[in-house]
Amino acid sequence: MTTKVSVLITVTGLDQPGVTSTLFGVLSRHHVELRNVEQVVIRGRLTLGVLIAVPAEVGDDVLRQDVQQAIRGLGLDVSIDRSDDQPVLADPSTHTIVVLGRPITAEAFTVVAREVAALGVNIDFIRGVSDYPVTGLELRVSVPAGPGVTAYGQLQSALARVAVDEGVDIALEDYSLSRRAKRLIVFDVDSTLIQGEVIEMLAARAGAEEKVAKITEAAMRGELDFEESLRERVATLAGLPAEVVDEVADELELTPGARTTLRTLRRLGYHCGVVSGGFRQVIEPLAEELMLDFVAANHLEIVDGKLTGRVTGPIVDRPGKAKALRDFANQAGVPMEQTVAVGDGANDIDMLSAAGLGVAFNAKPALREVADAALNHPYLDTVLFILGITRGEIEAADAADGGVRRVDIPET
Questions:
Q1: Cα–Cα distance between 382 and 135 in angstroms, integer?
Q2: CA angle 310, 313, 319 (to 5 degrees)
Q3: Cystine design at 209: which of 39, 204, 275, 328 (Cβ 3.0–4.6 Å)?
Q4: 3-class DSSP state for residue 9?
């Protein structure tokens, strides 16, 4: 049996058409065995690595000279080195770390890298996933595992601390097939899918906005029972004409990035829905416009054209939100580990805990503590980067459908 040795060829320099074909044209004349190829181009600068196998008894001087002559003739640099006999394809990374910031400073990334290294976690791969509306970097890492090894839990704590100290968003997830197999996503509505709180917009018509806002804030922090607080807030609406529901529905403003997020998820075949402690009569027109598959919300009682100050039917509270997610998953035939939930308040805790991936979006502390990922920039499309979707992929799909639009964002 012929013994073969591995040789690593590394080409660097300004990228241009014909580099790969030139190199492989030379290699084909030497009848080498191809084992692996990896390439990256950053700002027009190429790094191309080619791992080949050649018979041990065949000298590589002629091969070396031919490759050098061909590549240097293109104005690029090349190195050719014997390589250790290691597995051709390394074990897959165990986790991803997504860092989002506006901006991500070198200091912040240095701290991330230092904390990772201190725990014996290796960074296998880094790529940019976004340049708008935030900068996004994805790191694929290998976290040590085994009896008595606690690196993962320590990494979670360390990255949570770095996110606060450095003013960036950091999400740590398993790097596995399950990350790319999500099929159902549900959003809270108030202060998540839309800006503001519907109950406060309705209460403003009754002159009770300030009172209701205080109750809402306490409920979202988890200081009040949600059902009790809902009934107290709805009571302030008694006597309002039913027309105010339609007026408020017309005034809803989506969170920046919401349309991009839903458009992209629909392209990927996601089932999309909303689960809200708000009111179905207000939300349904928006849900139809956005082509959502599922809606769960409370129902305002209207009698003789006026709001009674009561709700009818089951209350969509904290447990009710989790139940709605499970019901949607069952209807769509999606396992719970393939679901995503996005919310901002304490009444979203059970829903995010039940989901395969729970995302806290500009959330209260009580929710951030239980979420798998916490996003603190006011752009809903940052959720896409956590799911492994890049800005380039989003805009390429938009361009194919007729156009890409970026809105100027003031510097912070």
A1: 10
A2: 105
A3: 204
A4: strand
Based on the residue annotation, tell me whether 188 is a catalytic residue of this protein: yes
Instruction: Copy the structure tokens of residue 117.
Output: 């290294």
Instruction: Please classify residue 230 by burial: count the beta carbons closer than 10 Å to its beta carbon, then call 0-12 exposed, 13-18 middle and 19+ buried.
Output: buried
Residue 309 host element (H or E): strand 306-312
- Helices 226-235 and 209-220 cross at an angle (nearest 10°) of 170
Predicted TM-score (pTM) of the model is 0.86
**Token pair 């308040």: residue:** 345
Task: Select which of 15, 169, 188, 344 is catalytic.
Answer: 188
The residue to which tokens 């050719």 are assigned: 80
How many CA atoms within 13 Å lie on the side-chain side of 111?
17
Say if CB 178 and CB 337 are below 8 A apart.
yes
Q: Catalytic site residue 190?
A: yes
Q: 3-class DSSP state for residue 209?
A: helix
Cβ–Cβ under 8 Å, residues 23 and 70: yes
Q: Which of 15, 169, 190, 350 is catalytic?
A: 190
At 63, phi and psi to the nearest 5? Answer: -60, -45
Per-residue pLDDT of the chain (412 residues; tens, 9 = 90+): 567 888 999 999 999 999 999 999 999 998 899 999 999 998 999 999 999 998 876 667 889 999 999 999 999 999 999 887 666 566 789 999 999 999 999 999 999 999 999 999 999 999 999 999 999 999 999 999 888 778 888 999 999 999 999 999 999 999 988 777 899 999 999 999 999 999 999 999 989 888 888 888 888 888 888 888 899 999 999 999 999 999 999 999 999 999 999 999 999 999 999 999 999 999 999 999 999 999 999 999 999 999 999 999 999 999 999 999 999 999 999 999 999 999 999 999 999 999 999 999 999 888 998 999 999 999 999 999 999 999 999 999 999 888 777 887 776 5
Query: CA 81 → CA 33, 66, 219, distances in Å?
Result: 16, 14, 64
CA distance 195 to 256: 9
Dihedral of CA 167/134/348/196: which sign? positive
Q: Are 366 and 121 in contact (CB under 8 A)?
A: no
- Cα–Cα distances in Å, from 375 out to 109, 342, 395? 17, 10, 21
- For CA atoms 212, 213, 214, 215, the dihedral sign is positive
